[in-house]
Request: fold
Amino acid sequence: MDFDSDFDERPLRQSDELTLNLDGWEGPLDLLLNLARSQKVDLTQISILALVEQYLAYLAGARALKLEIAADYLVMAAWLAYLKSCLLLPRDPEADPSPEEIALRLQMRLLRLDAMREAGARLLGRDRIGRDVFLRGSPEGLRQTRKAHWQVRDFDLFAAYGAVKARTAPAMHVVHPRAVMTLDEAIERVSRMIGSALDWTRLESFLPASQDPQYRRSALASSFVAILELARQGRVDLAQEQPFGQLLLRSAA
Amino acid sequence: MRDEFTRSVEATLFASAEPLTPEQIAEHVGEGDVAGALAGLAQTYAGRGIEIVERGGRWHFQTAPDLAHLLRRTREETRRLSRAATETLAIIAYHEPVSRAEIEAIRGVQISKGTLDVLMDAGWVRPAGRREGPGRPLLYATTQDFLGHFGLGSRRDLPGIDDLKAAGLLDPLDESVMESLGQLQLESEAEED
Amino acid sequence: MRDEFTRSVEATLFASAEPLTPEQIAEHVGEGDVAGALAGLAQTYAGRGIEIVERGGRWHFQTAPDLAHLLRRTREETRRLSRAATETLAIIAYHEPVSRAEIEAIRGVQISKGTLDVLMDAGWVRPAGRREGPGRPLLYATTQDFLGHFGLGSRRDLPGIDDLKAAGLLDPLDESVMESLGQLQLESEAEED
Reply:
């Protein structure tokens, strides 16, 4: 793997303490990676112990200058110091993951970041449109016009006209003449006929004979109201033996 | 055509947003026989899909004029006529020539500008002069294409009102039911207020 | 090259303001072996001042890269991408689709709001759905324009991608790695708030 790219490596100036500054790093990992690269070996060959030493020394230097050190740098320092002690102390067979494994993971992280850094640099260095290669200055352009192909069935057309006509036709209300018996007629007819009937007589026998069912219904309704009116006036007596039973009437005594 | 100078002239002309004079080209590609390179390119491109042309001393690339039709593509899509447009078309067919105001009076609803445009776009309706009278309104009538589309020999082949009635197309039942329902709703809404 | 179909493909591609897929070309030139015509054209133009290239399945004409020095109009380069944006773009391109937390884990720092915006504004990065799982994180991926701008035929052409893959450097991030370092940092940042 080629990690020796021409990536603009941040120069390390540990010797020049006056420029020691944490502002330039994008976090502890960035600082670690740059320290690792200062070991001048393939990143796969770096010494994690030496790297930890470098990091701690760097922070110590910054502290000596009374620079503000962001918390995440200190957390990393604490974690690295812990890692260092684990690496140096006699191995604890119970430790999981082992210090070596943790160190390997840290190394993988550095490799990963370094790889992405290099990839970014190589991407930017490619032949880029507008910088290295150019598109046609004034393309005619492709145009797409949409032409609607209108569809309507003849039935829809005629139905639409029918709907318009139906909707807008002047509304006409015609009441057909109907055969009815008025209430006055019924009162007159019942009081005339009751005069001679002293026995209980069914209401139906007061209705005129007619083939027209509408007229019969009208006569029944009117006659019913008529006998109620006559009963109110005390001119007839009404009787009904049970609900919905025969309505009987006779002349009031 | 592998000659470096000609390649440079070609690329410069291609990337330029405007036609270039040989002098302008030279500013990019440096000393050399720009005119000769242009002539060579013109020959290389002759008969291809792209050509290199000179207009008033300026050179540019363009697509071959005989292929211009490819660049403008029309896509046909089938679309159903809206209800408003269908009704308007029917009214024009039965009453032509008819003005917009008359169409609206018959429909009982206003029509939008787009509705008549759609019918004219479809080729079924045409302007048919103006009616002499107040406002000289523009009149509309149907076209031959209209008759063709609906398989009608002439306007006399349109079903008459009696035919429509016989077919139940004048049955106001649905409409009145809809209306009375609508009315009920309006009333109940009014009561709620 | 006098073949009419190839001429049509050439003209269509030349006239287009956008890279075109073979299918889009076919919509203009009709039935035919578009892929074959494109391959033939690519050969015809090889070594000339302009070339025909495929980027992510879409084709376009462009000037030959070695002539860049003639055509670079101004010294001032297009706005330089920041280091953070460059790294973020590389991480997305090599790992896509990838969540913001994963980008942050690789870089070891939080991404500032503007970084992804810049990349999306440039048209190189797009949101690419969410990962099913805890928190359903939004994922990011690169676009067709990304491939086009950086002259990549496809993601397989990303520089060194095979080596990186072989070295395990593009594997999904180990949970424990995220925890061992990422967590520590995220916790400390949370404390700062």
Strands of chain C lie at 50-55, 58-63, 98-99, 125-130, 138-142.
